[in-house]
Amino acid sequence: MLVVMRRTRSSRSRPLRQGLFVTVGVVALVTAGRPVTAVAEPEAAASVVQVITQANGTFLLPESVHVGPSGDVLVVDTGRNRVVRLDSTGVFEDTIGLGSVGSGNGQFNHPYQAAEDAAGNVYVADGFNNRVQKFDSAGDYVAQVSIGANKIPAGIAVSGGEVFVSNTTDNRIQVYADDLSAQTRTIGTFGTANGQLQGPRNLDIAGARLYVADQFNDRISVFNATTGAFVRKIGREGTTAGRFNSPLGVAADADGNVFVADTFNGRIQRFTAAGRYVEQYELFSSGVDLDAAGRLYAIGTTTNKVNVYQPGDGILVDARVRAGSGALVGDNVYGTDGTGQISARTSPRGSTITWTLTFQNDSTTPDRIRVKSPVLAATHYSVRYTRGGPTGPNVTAQVQGDGLVSPTLAPQAVFTVTAQVTIKASAPAGSFQARKITAKSETRPGVRDVVVISAVRQT
């Protein structure tokens, strides 16, 4: 049985989730020992390219997944108190340690997260044994360190000769030398302010940034991994896009794109380096990680599987569209009149490009968004717009004519349009030229600074 303890929030009035008890396919939330609701496991998103169902036996309540520098995949199979290693194709290689429950060297009692360093050494946050264990590249025990009596290590990451451990009991990150001989420093204190933590869980390090799943603050807290200085936060409490309900897992790439296991909202959310919401995948997950090719590995906490996703091939537009300010990122230009342009100049003739365009009401009041795009040259391009996805209802005429008006959106709610652009054989060299997308408030004419635009090139 998987149990995730919930500590007290400061000055929060909503009921606290004191524990999470998981059975296959159903999640029951427990407050003070009482089940209060049940959430069925949602379907995974259509972008799943692989599902790993077993490794020398089926998984049982796995907690997290890690893709190491070698390309090997470590799955923390918590219900079986083992850490299994897979190759990059998902084939079982071996088991780290003894693969049994206990407190001896190489045994585990509710492991939470594992991480591999550049030399192939594996570090495991051995939760209920209150310690971190180190194993060599062959999976043999090397060393251990206690993080403190009755203290729970719930996350781990390695970088630059240091091991970062989330002490979820004391609400801080403890940093050790990579031989586990000594603790060198701590990051974070208890609280809700910037740089403070409540129940930190999984960790990831990318681009000299330490990403912390700041569970009970319902956010991702980002620190400078070298200095420990607070950098920024992503998200806050809520159920709409860009908000979290007890996130347990986080992964980031070298460009700063962030994926979050928004656990109690039953989804994985994707953000840009600027912290802008992009898209989400429906999955009750407690752990995520990325491989070198950009594929996303995600634990299916209640399905006892590992889903592998292929996200869109790049964030090509991401800007807060604000009157009087322009931005330039690569080939993408955002005009001072509140418009965005997207381009994919390397796409060949005859190809079809699918864009998922997300418009977010970033105001504090309900609003409707009018989306407009100029008619593409019929001799060179054809375009089809749909609502919600490529197979959604066709709204091409509405978008190209007077524009498509969204339903009334609550603050921070999103409206998604999919654009499928086919480049004809007669198109000029350079393929798909920059096209302008305009979005503005429908209820407050002239106001353009309430919308966030993002576009993800899917194909």
Mean pLDDT: 75
**Strand element count:** 40
Question: Mind describing the biggest β-sheet?
Answer: 5 strands, antiparallel
Strand order of the largest sheet: 30-40-34-38-36
Shape: globular
In CATH, the homologous superfamily of the largest domain goes by the name TolB, C-terminal domain
Q: What is the CATH first-level class name of the largest domain?
A: Mainly Beta
Radius of gyration: 23 Å
Count of helices? 1
CATH-defined topology of the largest domain? Neuraminidase
Number of domains: 2
Assembly state of the chains shown: single chain
DSSP helix fraction: under 10%
Class from helix and strand fractions: mainly beta
Low-confidence stretches: 1-46, 313-346, 397-401, 430-435, 448-453
Q: Roughly what fraction of the amino acids lie in strands? A: over 45%
N- to C-terminal separation?
41 Å
CATH architecture term of the largest domain: 6 Propeller
Please describe the structure with a list of short key phrases separated by commas or semicolons.
459 residues, mainly beta, Neuraminidase, Immunoglobulin-like, 2 domains, five-stranded antiparallel beta sheet, four-stranded antiparallel beta sheet, 1% helix
Q: What report would you give on this structure?
A:
The protein has 459 residues and is mainly β. It has two domains: 41-309, TolB, C-terminal domain (Neuraminidase, 6 Propeller); 315-457, Immunoglobulin-like, CATH 2.60.40. The strands form eleven sheets. The protein has a five-stranded antiparallel β-sheet. It has a four-stranded antiparallel β-sheet with strand order 4-29-28-27, with no helix packed on it. The protein starts with 18 loop residues before the first strand and ends with a strand. 43% of the residues are buried.
